[in-house]
Design goal:
Layout lengths: L1 E6 L4 H5 L10 E2 L2 E2 H10 L5 E6 L4 H8 L7 E5 L5 H9 L11 E5 L2 E2 L2 H13 L5 E6 L9 E4 L5 E5 L6 E11 L2 H11 L5 H10 L4 E5 L4 E2 L4 H10 L4
Parallel strand pairs: 1-4, 1-6, 4-5, 8-12
Antiparallel strand pairs: 2-3, 6-11, 7-13, 8-11, 9-10, 9-11
Length: 238
């Protein structure tokens, strides 16, 4: 599996709330968030890793440079206006994404349990019919969740900003995709579409087949108070 991490956000809310470290280096269970995420990736059949950070993140760049990994690490240093712009930069940085291989993309502050992620990756790797596999959850943690509708076969039928009768899940922010999704990404960028949720809608509009993989709980770290909550969720504090 080819992995990518978007870590280019400023983490402005954490800074305003007194957290001095760059968000990727904020520790969960004694490990920097980005380090914990990379550790999980490296235990789940990795082929390559690409990370994007913004131009001010010298500490994060130094941290990444100190790592010894069993696969190539491609680091993109660029400030971008949105996660989707970051994704586009990442997609140009590692050739595996444009090949027939599968890749998994997430943001650095998306927190999940490792066993849940391992089951998700195994299901995505085993799926020979879908163009993508999105981690979804019934647990609503986001301030502006993206609701996901899926049929009995877990094929995604819609992404909506509001809950509907047929929406059982919200997006977990973990995107498993294949090379056809990159063609849609290029088209979205050319048309000025700049939000990940609109990109996901464009994938469906383009006729791509997306499967939902349910995970009981996925959380984000957006505020200082989220750190303790994430650690409790991971089981390292009571």
């Amino acid at each position: 599996m080819n992995y990518a991490i978007i870590a280019a956000g400023e983490g402005s809310r954490l800074v305003q709330e007194g957290i001095k470290l760059p968000k990727p280096l904020v520790k969960l269970c004694g490990r920097p968030m980005i380090g914990r995420l990379i550790d999980i990736f490296m235990r789940n059949n990795p082929e390559s890793l690409c990370v994007i950070v913004n131009e001010q993140m010298t500490q994060v760049r130094e941290y990444l440079g100190s790592l010894e990994l069993p696969v190539p690490l491609r680091l993109v240093v660029k400030s971008t206006p949105s996660s989707m712009h970051s994704f586009h930069q990442v997609s140009k940085a590692f050739p595996e994404a444009a090949s027939s291989g599968k890749f998994c993309l997430t943001t650095v502050d998306t927190i999940f349990r490792e066993d849940d992620f391992a089951r998700y990756i195994a299901a995505f790797e085993a799926d020979t019919t879908a163009d993508g596999c999105m981690a979804v959850t019934p647990f609503v943690d986001d301030e502006k969740p993206l609701y996901v509708s899926a049929g009995p076969d877990m094929r995604i039928t819609a992404f909506t900003d509001t809950r509907r009768d047929d929406t059982r899940f919200v997006s977990g922010g973990v995107y498993g995709l294949t090379s056809p999704a990159l063609q849609v990404l290029d088209d979205c960028m050319a048309r000025g579409i700049s939000r990940m949720r609109n990109y996901q809608r464009a994938l469906l509009d383009a006729g791509l087949s997306l499967r939902a993989f349910p995970i009981d709980k996925i959380v984000d770290v957006d505020h200082a108070g989220d750190i303790a909550g994430a650690e409790a969720f991971l089981g390292c504090i009571n």
